[in-house]
Amino acid sequence: MSAPTTRPTSRVARATCLIALTALALGGLSACGEDEQQLQVVAAASLRAPFTELAEQFEDDHPGVTVDVTYSASSATFAQQALDGADGDVIATGDTSSMAGASDALDGQAQIFASDVLVMVVASDASTELADVVDGASYAACVTTAACGQAWAALQRGTGVRAEPTALEVTGAAVVEAVTSGTVDAGFVYRSEAAAAGDAVR
Question: What is the pTM of this model?
Answer without folding.
Answer: 0.70
